[in-house]
């Protein structure tokens, strides 16, 4: 190991930075961390400040004009778009007073409104990681990461706030929701309900995809206006009145709380908030904290922002509970910043 590190150090003086990064990624990152800075210029360790440790984030609501609602999110170089489509379907017999958050086959083209009578494939939002966003992915069936992200995104949107949870697990309750109110999607109990399809397409993959996907879904759901719909018992059909500026008869989906996901990596014992793809591939541990942003922005409510989930992958966390507490505290601060961004 020492010989390898010595060889990499010697090579650093003869190679260009880009080539050294490609051939010796771990020594490359280690050199930056040792200087108290990350490859993209963000500070680390004692030099880090709350505002400087995160990548620049932005959200553009209504970026897809053909969709009822959409949001384009940039998190550093990671870019993705969330589009919403609507259908009408009969509710499940077990939950006659609830609608659906569902998955549709593709994002483009995004139709305005369509109507369906079957209830297949209405279980998880769809996250598309195509070869266009990164050479890590190949054409064909969805990669494992896309399937995991889709399931995790559903758990976040249909989750309870957790008052206590075990360490190092992703623990989310998903039969009811205090994030998305499924009862607000009902048109006629037992007869008709809205199905909200959330399609997330990654345009550029550079780490933090779940964080960006959750942010995009929250932005799209907050701006979604459901059309005024009535169920005709005589014809057994649903009649919708399309929302328009001249006819503001639609309704919005009430969000019990706004979930925000914040990721961290641990490299050589150093906590790296919001890691890039290059950093996350070298981290020994990765932690994702999902918090529900409080309705008010007072300091007391910020500290009490409930957890929706904690996920830890890789080796056991260096620092254990103390590192996890630090992640949760930083995630709550970051969630408040993201909430302000969505509210603008």
UniProtKB/TrEMBL annotation:
<dbReference type="GO" id="GO:0016075">
    <property type="term" value="P:rRNA catabolic process"/>
</dbReference>
<feature type="domain" description="Exoribonuclease phosphorolytic">
    <location>
        <begin position="55"/>
        <end position="226"/>
    </location>
</feature>
<keyword id="KW-0271">Exosome</keyword>
<dbReference type="Pfam" id="PF01138">
    <property type="entry name" value="RNase_PH"/>
</dbReference>
<dbReference type="InterPro" id="IPR050590">
    <property type="entry name" value="Exosome_comp_Rrp42_subfam"/>
</dbReference>
<dbReference type="GO" id="GO:0034475">
    <property type="term" value="P:U4 snRNA 3'-end processing"/>
</dbReference>
<feature type="domain" description="Exoribonuclease phosphorolytic">
    <location>
        <begin position="259"/>
        <end position="293"/>
    </location>
</feature>
<keyword id="KW-0698">rRNA processing</keyword>
<keyword id="KW-0963">Cytoplasm</keyword>
<dbReference type="InterPro" id="IPR036345">
    <property type="entry name" value="ExoRNase_PH_dom2_sf"/>
</dbReference>
<dbReference type="GO" id="GO:0000177">
    <property type="term" value="C:cytoplasmic exosome (RNase complex)"/>
</dbReference>
<dbReference type="InterPro" id="IPR015847">
    <property type="entry name" value="ExoRNase_PH_dom2"/>
</dbReference>
<protein>
    <recommendedName>
        <fullName>Ribosomal RNA-processing protein 43</fullName>
    </recommendedName>
</protein>
<dbReference type="GO" id="GO:0000467">
    <property type="term" value="P:exonucleolytic trimming to generate mature 3'-end of 5.8S rRNA from tricistronic rRNA transcript (SSU-rRNA, 5.8S rRNA, LSU-rRNA)"/>
</dbReference>
<dbReference type="GO" id="GO:0071035">
    <property type="term" value="P:nuclear polyadenylation-dependent rRNA catabolic process"/>
</dbReference>
<dbReference type="InterPro" id="IPR027408">
    <property type="entry name" value="PNPase/RNase_PH_dom_sf"/>
</dbReference>
<dbReference type="GO" id="GO:0034473">
    <property type="term" value="P:U1 snRNA 3'-end processing"/>
</dbReference>
<dbReference type="GO" id="GO:0071028">
    <property type="term" value="P:nuclear mRNA surveillance"/>
</dbReference>
<dbReference type="GO" id="GO:0000176">
    <property type="term" value="C:nuclear exosome (RNase complex)"/>
</dbReference>
<dbReference type="GO" id="GO:0071038">
    <property type="term" value="P:TRAMP-dependent tRNA surveillance pathway"/>
</dbReference>
<comment type="similarity">
    <text>Belongs to the RNase PH family.</text>
</comment>
<dbReference type="InterPro" id="IPR020568">
    <property type="entry name" value="Ribosomal_Su5_D2-typ_SF"/>
</dbReference>
<dbReference type="Pfam" id="PF03725">
    <property type="entry name" value="RNase_PH_C"/>
</dbReference>
<keyword id="KW-0539">Nucleus</keyword>
<dbReference type="GO" id="GO:0005730">
    <property type="term" value="C:nucleolus"/>
</dbReference>
<dbReference type="GO" id="GO:0034476">
    <property type="term" value="P:U5 snRNA 3'-end processing"/>
</dbReference>
<dbReference type="GO" id="GO:0035925">
    <property type="term" value="F:mRNA 3'-UTR AU-rich region binding"/>
</dbReference>
<keyword id="KW-0694">RNA-binding</keyword>
<dbReference type="InterPro" id="IPR001247">
    <property type="entry name" value="ExoRNase_PH_dom1"/>
</dbReference>
<dbReference type="InterPro" id="IPR033196">
    <property type="entry name" value="Rrp43"/>
</dbReference>
């Amino acid at each position: 190991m020492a010989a390898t590190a010595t060889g990499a150090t010697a090579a650093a003086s003869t190679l260009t930075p880009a080539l050294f990064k490609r051939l010796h990624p771990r020594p490359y990152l280690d050199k930056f961390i040792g200087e108290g800075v990350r490859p993209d210029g963000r500070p680390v360790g004692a030099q880090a400040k709350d505002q400087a440790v995160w990548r620049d984030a932005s959200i553009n609501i209504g970026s897809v004009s053909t969709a009822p609602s959409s949001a384009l999110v940039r998190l550093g170089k990671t870019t993705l778009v969330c589009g919403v489509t609507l259908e009408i379907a009969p509710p499940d017999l077990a939950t006659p007073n609830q609608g659906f958050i569902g998955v549709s086959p593709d994002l483009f083209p995004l139709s305005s409104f369509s109507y369906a009578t079957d209830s297949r494939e209405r279980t998880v939002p769809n996250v598309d990681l195509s070869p266009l966003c990164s050479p890590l992915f190949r054409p064909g069936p969805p990669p494992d990461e896309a399937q995991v992200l889709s399931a995790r995104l559903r758990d976040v949107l249909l989750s309870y706030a957790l008052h206590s949870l075990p360490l190092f697990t992703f623990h989310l309750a998903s039969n009811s929701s205090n994030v998305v109110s499924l009862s607000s999607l009902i048109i006629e109990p037992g007869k008709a309900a809205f199905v909200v399809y959330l399609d997330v397409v990654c345009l550029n993959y550079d780490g933090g995809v779940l964080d960006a996907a959750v942010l995009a879904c929250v932005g799209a759901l907050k701006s979604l206006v459901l059309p005024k719909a009535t169920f005709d018992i005589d014809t057994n059909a649903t009649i919708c009145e399309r929302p328009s500026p001249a006819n503001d008869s639609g309704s919005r989906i009430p969000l019990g709380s706004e979930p925000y996901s914040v990721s961290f990596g641990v490299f050589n014992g150093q906590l790296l908030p919001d890691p890039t793809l290059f950093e996350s591939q070298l981290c020994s541990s990765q932690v994702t904290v999902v918090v529900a942003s409080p309705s008010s922005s007072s300091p007391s409510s910020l500290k009490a922002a409930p957890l929706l989930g904690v996920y830890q992958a890789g080796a056991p966390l260096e620092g254990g509970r103390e590192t996890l507490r630090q992640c949760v505290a930083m995630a709550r601060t970051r969630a408040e910043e993201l909430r302000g961004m969505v509210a603008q």
